[in-house]
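Subject: Re: docking follow-up (zinc ion)

Dear J.,

Thanks for your patience while I sorted out the input files. As discussed at Tuesday's group meeting, I've set up the holo structure prediction with zinc ion included as the bound ligand rather than trying to dock it afterwards. The sequence and the ligand SMILES I used are pasted below, so you can double-check that they match what you have on your end before we go further.
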Amino acid sequence: MSALTFENALKGSTAYKFFLSDLRSGLGHAYAVMTGDDDVADEFFTLIATTVYCQNGSACMSCAECRKVLHSNHPDVFHVNAARDKIKVDDVNKMLSSVYIKSLSGRKLYFIHRADMMNVQAQNKLLKTLEEPPAGVTVFLGVANESAMLDTIKSRVRAIHMDSFDEQTVYNAMLSRGYSEEKSAVAAACSEGMLGKADKIAASSQYSALYAFAIDALKRLNRSSDIVGLDADIASQENLNELLDVLSIIIRDMLVVQNSPDMILSKHIPSDITALADRYSPLALSKILGMIGDTRRQLALNVPALSAIDNLLFSILEVRHRCPKS
Ligand SMILES: [Zn+2]
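The structure tokens for the complex came back this morning:
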């Protein structure tokens, strides 16, 4: 069992390779790790710190230095906003009070989790340090929402864009977490390349049920008489928006089956989806994707769920007839 949940995937990421090449040529003073996947950002920070301090030079996760990092008691590693809550100017002041104290190792690392939660005063305060950083100090900012960062900060940091992981990598990561092949496949399909999201999906029994429900609904939908009953089943779902997300993902995978059959294996698309894809043309599927978006907008405008879903199901059948498979 590795110390990090996503150790293998992260060690293979382009983001890590970018960091390693900078480390070899001389680490800069400030980096922004850009990712919407908070769990991955946290693990990436740990991987960075173990890489810098590891006695074996390999982020081995087992030497004394690596263990200190993993147990959050390394004297030269500082975390700000580890709880990913909010960052006020006081928090930055507290951080800055230690920045100029010399370290034993000669290098200190500061990790600001979700730095995009800093208010403007906090960012301006931090900016002074980024402008005149003390030697041996490197600050890493975890950024999920780039637009929340001041341009003056952005211009002082090197951006490291976290990979969007391909489905095979996510699938393997979930398998190594001990999830079943089926759960890993659903998580890989629905995670949009985000490992943290995939992990939450795989761990949630509700999500697998939602996925199975969406597949079953598509299987049941063949003629207009099928809509009676099915519409109410769907409309009464508690997480209707999440269900529509899952439906979009399934339709997109059906498009993959149509357009690039060689990707079926690497994407771990269930046979149910391959069979469903047989019923629709690629044109019909792309139109259905747009209709699901329309339904989402209708629900946001408080159109009653039953009539929005009714509308969607009729439109799906209609487009299936109007744009048949050639
Ligand atoms: Zn080590």
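A couple of observations from a first look. The CA atoms of residues 141 and 319 lie 47 Å apart. The pocket of zinc ion is lined by residues 54-56, 60, 63, 65-66 (CB under 6 Å).

Let me know if you'd like me to rerun anything.

Best regards,
T.
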